[in-house]
Amino acid sequence: MNDDLSHRHSAFRFHGSWLEFARIAFPNLLLTIVTLGIYRFWATTREREYLWSKTEFIDERLEWTGKGIELFVGFVMAFLLIGLPLIVIQLISQGLIFRGESILAVVMTLMMFLLLFYLTGVAYFRALRYRLSRTYWRGIRGGSDDPGFQYGLAYMWKSVVGWLPIFLGVPWSMISLWNDRWNAMSFGPHRFSATAEWKPLMKRYLLFYLVPFLLFIGAVVFGISMAASGGTPGTLGSTGIAIGAIFAIVGVLSFYLFLPLAALAYYSKYFRLAVGGLRLHNLEFDFRARAPDWILFFLSNMAIVICTLGIGYIFMPYRNWKFFIDHMEAYGEINIDDLTQSETVVAKHGEGLLDAFDVGAI
Amino acid sequence: MSAFFDAGHYDGKSAVRRKVEVQIIGRQFFLLETERRHGPFAFSDIEYVTHKDDADVYGLKEADGWRLMLSGPVPSDLSAMLPARRNYGGWVDRLGFGKAAVAFTLASAAAVAVVLLSPQWLAPLIPSSVDEKLGDALVGDFGGRFCSTPAGDAALKKLVASLDANPSDLQVEVAKIDMVNAVALPGGKVILFDGLVKQARSPDEVAGVLAHEIGHVREKHVMQALLRQMGLAVVLGGIDGNSGALVNNLLSMSYSRESEAEADAHSMKALGGANISPIGTASFFDRLSKMDGSASSSTSENGIAGYMSSHPLSRSRKDAFEKSIVKGKNYKPALTPAEWTELKTMCTQDRNAKSGFGFDFN
Ligand SMILES: [Zn+2]
Question: Second label for A12, Cα 20 to 30 Å away, from A93, A230, B60, B270?
């Protein structure tokens, strides 16, 4: 049985409703509060179970099979492996400073930061691995046999190389790390192949990068043209000063407006390129959201959170997932008979490190 | 006895969806396809996985991806054999949502209460050898910054002996650091900074501050604070980063305010016992309050600044010390003029002591 996707309008479809989600999110919020936050691992699991089960790929829903206890164990592990040593190292380095061994204390603190940096990379990798290994479609799951320790090193050096040329290498490091991550992942018997390119991303990045400079140049040009037209404050009087003040305010506002917009424009291109470079056997993926979609999404998220005095925050997982699925597209074909079970190992714990650092996945 | 019921099935080995009939035979069942029979499977191995679309999805222990999907009205003889649906997760489902919420609230309140209150009882139980080792590890020789001259040491010794009944288990030192501060550390260590001694206008002022720090030692505040911080870090670890840290700080701050008040009370009592006038300490706080600006704010402690600051405002502390003056009491100076000069110039005389700080206190 072959499924030819080329004539369908969308391989991914989301059937959820925010009212149904509210019936999960509100009890979750209550239980999370009364357990001093411990329930949130089970809360996350319930939300994912719902979101996955409402997501249809071709002709079958996804299943989320992760457990709250896995996320909890992951969190406790992160606390024991990182949190406690961090506290001890802080105590020791404080003692070293007291003893006047400042250099040793600085070295220890530096080592600690390097370790955290490394573990953040490992955490990104393992979170993706965990999510794929808990996602089932037609009884088949994804995963990876790579524990992600190598990726942690790549994360360190590629990030640093990205920052070194006055942050101009960031697009390269982001795309390259995305490819590294996904090339290690598989679904069923098939390995993902990620071949996104970073060069097409540079134009958008430069736009974001140059926004502060462009605004500054704009202000200077405006000032010069004002002066050239003979409009000095002396001859224009108080109205001239008022106009100048208005332009200054507009300038500041546009700085705070344009910079996030440029960042979103960059991110939308990044995500489109990254997903577009992804392949699974004969399947190709595409993410169709463009910069205006992202900006609209971002602004309405802000509006929801502000208008509900923050309560709307609990709907963000729903909104994020819906945005993601609504814009995902897949082309090509799947041979159902060929799609056999994944033989990757399944880790028993969840996204502990990632949870501790509070960074997003995918 | 057997019953037939239409169901969907994935064997977990390939993605092929099978239409099967469930045939129940005692505590086992078979899945029948047109030409094949799968099983037998034991009902005791069946696990609830999720609910998707309109179907309840069941898995089989130790069979990755094995799925049985039942939709529509399930015959009672089959549903009786199946595990219950999972909604919130184990405990909550067993207790019911309301009862679980109440139980969690009580447990959380109890945990916070234990963490906040137990350090007061636990701190005295920590053996003094542990306390001392911790103090030694933390301070050592303070990077050679302790000042020492025979006459200065004698003056300091006299001052300590007049303020405390057991001066032998205290280690009071003057450190060559040009800051107006004093600290109490584990192991009965009290460090007066040379900046404070130099800035003081009379030995009575130093006596009041010293007695305050000795109060911290005698009330075991350092160990209490350490235990409380560790306990809160564990209990509130479940809350998301920022809100947890905020709650943590607020709770431990209110306790440090309490500790400061206790230490002040201890100081006033010690000064009274040594016949040293508290007016010196009051004027010292007066000068400090002019430096930190609290004198210009309102006299009431209701302001945000009064609540949030980790130390009681110098202004209010000054008032407390002034009130503790006993009219008509025959106060005598804490040190003779000669002793006071020796103490004040101790760090200038001691050329071996290293100077500087290279660290900051709050
Ligand atoms: Zn104090």
Answer: B60
